[in-house]
C-alpha cells in the first residue's frame, strides 16, 4: 500500500513539474467526460420533464382512436400472394365511430370507467370585444372531458347535462382570455356574452366558467403555445351543430383506480373489433398513457445513451493523448528508470509507477470534466426546460471509472515498455 501511495506522490510531482503538458494531455479526457455528463444530464432532465408532463394527464387514461390497418396479404386461387395496399385509403364517415358505439362501450364497462371525454375541434377563431381581440381554439367537449384531460376550473362552473345535450351557446374560457378581455376579473367574465369569430361566421357565447391555463415550462412549451391562443370549450352538441357532423375520430377514457390501463386498452380494442370486422382499411386502436410514458422514457434513454457514446469517442482520443505523453515521459526519464532498476526495483514496480501516473492524469481530468459537465448540463436544462437539472449519479460514477480504465488501458503499453528496459542501456542513455 505504501508503494502505491508513493507512486501517486511521484505522479503528482511529475504533473506539477510539467503543468502545461499535463493540462493539454488531460484536455481530451476533460472534453470527453464533460460532453458525456452534460448530454446525460440534459437527457435525464428532459426525460423527467416529459414523463411528468405526460403523467399529469393521467396514467390511468386510455386513448381510443381510428387507426389504419396493417397491410394484408391476399392469396389468389392460383397460389400467388400479394399485399393489399391501403396507404391511399381516406377516412369516410362510415369508417368513423359514432356516439351510439361509445354509449354501448360505456354501458358494457361501466364498472371499469370513471369518465369518457370526447372532443370535437370546431376551428381556430378569435373572441372580439370592441377593439379587443384574442385568439382561441374552439373545441366541443362532453361532460367527462374535464376529468380525462385534467382541466382545472378557476371560477364559475362546468356545463350541465341540459347544456351538453342541446345546442346551448355557453363556453368555458381560459384565465388568459379573462386577463385580456376583462382585466383579470373572473366575476365580470362569468355571465358575460362574448362574440366569437370562426372563419367568416360570428357566434355569441355566454361564459359560464374560467379554467386555469397551464402552458408548461421551457422554451419548447413557449414556442408551442402559439402566443396568446388558448382553448375555448363549448358543449359537444353545439360543436356538432356548427360543423354539421356528429361522428367521433378519437376519445379518452379515464379508467378507475383499481383497473390496469394496459389490460383495459386490450379490452377496448376487442370491444370495437366487431364493428370493423369488414373494414379492410381502418380499425380501432387503444393505448394507455402509462404505456406511452414508458415508451417515451425508453426512447429518450436510448437516444441519450447513443449520443453519449458518440461523445465518448473524445475519451478514446484523450486516451491516445495520454499514451503519447507517457511515451514521451518515459523517454525523458530513461536514466531514472535505469537507476531504479540498477538499485533492484522489479519490473512490476516500474510498470505500476507509470500505470498509476496515467491513471492519475485521467482521474484528475475526469473530475474536472465531471464538474464542467454537471455545470454545463444543469445550465442547459434550466435554460431549455425551466426546470431543475437531473444529473445521473450512475453516469458520473461510470464516467469516472471509465476514465480510470482509459488510464490503465492506454498507460499499460508505455509502462510495460519502461519495465522491460535494459538497466545498462538505460543508464548509458543521454
Number of folding domains?
2
User: What is the assembly state of the chains in this entry?
Assistant: single chain
- The overall pLDDT average reads 80
What shape does the CA trace take? elongated
The DSSP helix count reads 16
List low-confidence stretches. Answer: 216-226
Largest sheet: 10 strands, mixed
Strand content: 15-25%
Radius of gyration: 34 Å
Give me a quick take on this structure.
With 430 residues, the chain is an alpha+beta fold. Helix content is 54%, strand content 20%. The protein has helices at residues 2-17, 19-55, 99-108, 145-148, 161-165, 175-182, 186-189, 218-224, 236-243, 261-272, 289-311, 313-332, 334-342, 347-385, 393-419, 423-427, and strands at residues 61-68, 72-75, 81-84, 113-129, 132-141, 153-156, 170-174, 193-198, 201-211, 230-235, 250-255, 282-288.
Structure description:
- The chain has 430 residues and is α+β, with helices and mostly antiparallel strands.
- The chain has helices spanning 2-17, 19-55, 99-108, 145-148, 161-165, 175-182, 186-189, 218-224, 236-243, 261-272, 289-311, 313-332, 334-342, 347-385, 393-419, 423-427, and strands spanning 61-68, 72-75, 81-84, 113-129, 132-141, 153-156, 170-174, 193-198, 201-211, 230-235, 250-255, 282-288.
- Helix 2 (19-55) runs antiparallel to helix 15 (393-419), helix 8 runs parallel beside helix 14 and helix 14 (347-385) runs antiparallel to helix 15.
- The longest helix has 39 residues, at 347-385.
- The two termini are 33 Å apart.
Amino acid at each position: 500500500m505504501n508503494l502505491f501511495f508513493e507512486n501517486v506522490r511521484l505522479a503528482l510531482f511529475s504533473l506539477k513539474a510539467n503543468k502545461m503538458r499535463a493540462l493539454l494531455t488531460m484536455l481530451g479526457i476533460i472534453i470527453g467526460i464533460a460532453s458525456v455528463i452534460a448530454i446525460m444530464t440534459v437527457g435525464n432532465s428532459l426525460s423527467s420533464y416529459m414523463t411528468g408532463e405526460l403523467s399529469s394527464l393521467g396514467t390511468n387514461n386510455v386513448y381510443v382512436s381510428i387507426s389504419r390497418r396493417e397491410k394484408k396479404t391476399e392469396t389468389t386461387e392460383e397460389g400467388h400472394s400479394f399485399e393489399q395496399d391501403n396507404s391511399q385509403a381516406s377516412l369516410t364517415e362510415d369508417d368513423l365511430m359514432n356516439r351510439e358505439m361509445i354509449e354501448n362501450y360505456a354501458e358494457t364497462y361501466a364498472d371499469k370507467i370513471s369518465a369518457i371525454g370526447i372532443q370535437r375541434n370546431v376551428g381556430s377563431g378569435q373572441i372580439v370585444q370592441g377593439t379587443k381581440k384574442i385568439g382561441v381554439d374552439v373545441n366541443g367537449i362532453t361532460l367527462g372531458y374535464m376529468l380525462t384531460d385534467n382541466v382545472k376550473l378557476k371560477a364559475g362552473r362546468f356545463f350541465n347535462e341540459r347544456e351538453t345535450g342541446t345546442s346551448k351557446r355557453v363556453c368555458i374560457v381560459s384565465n388568459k382570455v379573462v386577463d385580456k378581455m376583462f382585466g383579470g376579473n373572473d366575476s365580470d367574465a362569468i355571465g358575460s356574452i362574448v362574440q366569437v369569430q370562426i372563419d367568416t361566421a360570428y357566434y355569441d357565447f355566454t361564459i359560464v366558467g374560467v379554467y386555469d391555463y397551464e402552458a408548461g415550462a421551457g422554451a419548447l412549451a413557449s414556442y408551442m403555445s402559439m402566443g396568446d391562443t388558448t382553448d375555448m370549450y363549448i358543449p359537444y352538441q353545439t360543436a356538432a351543430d356548427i360543423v354539421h357532423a356528429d361522428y367521433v375520430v378519437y376519445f379518452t377514457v379515464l379508467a378507475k383506480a383499481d383497473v390496469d390501463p394496459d389490460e383495459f386498452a386490450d379490452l377496448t380494442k376487442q370491444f370495437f373489433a366487431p364493428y370493423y370486422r369488414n373494414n379492410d382499411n381502418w380499425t380501432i386502436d387503444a393505448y394507455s398513457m402509462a404505456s406511452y410514458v414508458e415508451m417515451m422514457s425508453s426512447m429518450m434513454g436510448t437516444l441519450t445513451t447513443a449520443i453519449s457514446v458518440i461523445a465518448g469517442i473524445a475519451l478514446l482520443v484523450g486516451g491516445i493523448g495520454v499514451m503519447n505523453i507517457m511515451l514521451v515521459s518515459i523517454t525523458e526519464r530513461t536514466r531514472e528508470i535505469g537507476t531504479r532498476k540498477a538499485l533492484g526495483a522489479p519490473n512490476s514496480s516500474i510498470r505500476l509507477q507509470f500505470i498509476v501516473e496515467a491513471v492519475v492524469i485521467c482521474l484528475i481530468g475526469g473530475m474536472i470534466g465531471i464538474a464542467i459537465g454537471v455545470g454545463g448540463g444543469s445550465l442547459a436544462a434550466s435554460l431549455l426546460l425551466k426546470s431543475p437539472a437531473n444529473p445521473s449519479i450512475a453516469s458520473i460514477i461510470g464516467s469516472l471509472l471509465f476514465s480510470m480504465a482509459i488510464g490503465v488501458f492506454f498507460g499499460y503499453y508505455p509502462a510495460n515498455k519502461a519495465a522491460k528496459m535494459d538497466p545498462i542501456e538505460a543508464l548509458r542513455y543521454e
